[in-house]
Write a structure and sequence with these properties.
eight-stranded mixed beta sheet, binds adenosine monophosphate, 392 residues, 15 helices, Nucleotidyltransferase, domain 5, six-stranded mixed beta sheet
Length: 392
């Protein structure tokens, strides 16, 4: 069965087509700057990379080019061959604990959750609607970023605020990156050959989050009501004392929206080091003895270590810790400093294995009390698997 996994952003559309159940990638690509000047797309097909500049006024234009490429590259002879579409949907509220076939009712729910994910859900809906006309016969599946975290208990997902904020306004911790955490936990359970394993999954990319997983179920996660909670990220602050917000408004004259924008787009690595949100630039700065870059790295490592340590306690120990996403898969320095800071838990790095980048690897020594792994995440594959299973 041919299955298309789609991740639509407000001005981008990322896709990957699979032959299932073999999980073979047939073609993948990214449409960028949709609705903006200089739009275009890149494709990866038959080991070749193709880049084209085309006018993309909206998501429908992107879907049209995508279909044209599928036909021209003989990925499909007709659109009927695409039997399932899996869409990433960021927010499923507290209603969706698993992927579902998207019906009119589900689509209305996703729209209802707009206030909870004002940047992401509208973009996801644009993506869903763009395919409706062109590929009307496929089973359409929604895979929610929040779903995996729905197993958290009230004690772990509530904030210490008036209970009515939860009952009346749905204020609670939702958690994000769930598709990635689920992939990582499943892969770790496979490697350990243990279904009741206690696992700490660290998704460290431009956005980052950490989850505690027991028996394949999430018991806690670092992101919260929005993705701007938990660890320090590329441009997001992570956890702060909320009273900073009115204080900065009064001191600078900034509006609430401007301060929230600062916390989402000008904080984190970028805010602390003042140079870049990219961890490679922070690492380059560290080599040049840039003190703000050194500070950024130290603060990031501390924020990750704090979550790992607290989840270690919450889980009653850990069978494994894994690192994933851009930084987790590639940064030798970040992993080394996190693991060294976890020394009190008897965790010991294997420096040679830790030199691995972008590949699955065990990076702790035999004496380590908890094994740590690099596990490259694959959210598109998870989306394709769920779409395939629901379409089958
Ligand atoms: P993601 O959001 O998963 O695409 O991750 C993006 C982050 O990964 C950025 O901060 C990148 O700087 C970081 N990253 C990618 N490659 C490397 C690398 N080789 N070393 C350090 N960080 C990297």
């Amino acid at each position: 069965m041919k299955v298309l996994a789609i991740n639509a952003g407000s001005s981008s559309l990322k896709f990957q087509m699979y032959e299932m159940p073999e999980e073979k990638v047939l073609i993948s690509g990214l449409f960028e700057r949709i609705g903006i000047n200089n739009s275009g797309y890149t494709l990866k097909v038959n080991g070749e990379k193709i880049k084209k500049e085309v006018v993309l006024n909206n998501h429908e234009d992107a879907v049209e080019y995508l279909i044209k490429e599928l036909l021209e590259n003989n990925i499909v002879a007709s659109l009927d061959e695409i039997e399932a579409l899996g869409h990433r949907v960021v927010h499923g509220g507290d209603k969706y604990a698993d992927s579902v076939v998207i019906t009119d009712e589900v689509l209305q729910d996703v729209e209802k959750f707009y206030p909870l994910a004002p940047l992401h859900n509208p973009a996801n809906v644009l993506g869903i609607k763009a395919f409706q006309k062109s590929v009307p016969n496929a089973v359409v599946v929604g895979v929610f970023d929040t779903a995996f975290h729905q197993t958290m208990e009230e004690r772990d997902f509530l904030y210490g605020v008036p209970y009515e904020w939860y009952t009346d306004y749905k204020v609670r911790k939702y958690g994000f990156h769930g598709t990635s955490h689920k992939f990582l936990a499943n892969r770790m359970m496979e490697i350990l050959n243990k279904k009741d394993a206690k696992i700490i999954t660290c998704h460290l990319g431009n956005g980052g989050s950490i989850s505690a997983v027991k028996n394949g179920k999430c018991i806690d996660t670092s992101m919260g009501f929005t993705p701007n909670a938990g660890i320090i990220m590329g441009t997001r602050s992570g956890d702060i004392d909320v009273t900073i917000i009115p204080y900065i408004m009064s001191q600078t004259g900034k509006t609430l929206d401007e301060v929230i924008d600062d916390l989402n787009k000008k904080s984190g690595f970028l805010g602390i080091c003042g140079i870049s949100s990219d961890s490679r630039d922070v690492e380059d700065g560290m080599k040049d003895n840039n003190l703000r870059c050194i500070l950024t790295h130290k603060m990031f490592v501390k924020s990750v270590v704090n979550y790992i340590a607290s989840y270690y306690v919450a889980l009653g120990g850990a069978d494994a810790i894994c690192f994933s996403a851009g930084i987790g898969e590639n940064s030798v320095t970040v992993r080394k400093d996190i693991i060294e800071a976890l020394n009190a838990l008897g965790i010991k790095i294997d420096e040679a294995s830790n030199n691995t980048r972008g590949k699955e690897a065990l990076i702790t020594s035999e004496e380590s009390a908890v094994p740590c792994y690099i596990i490259p995440t694959d959210e598109e594959l998870m989306i394709a698997r769920d779409a395939f299973n629901l379409a089958k």
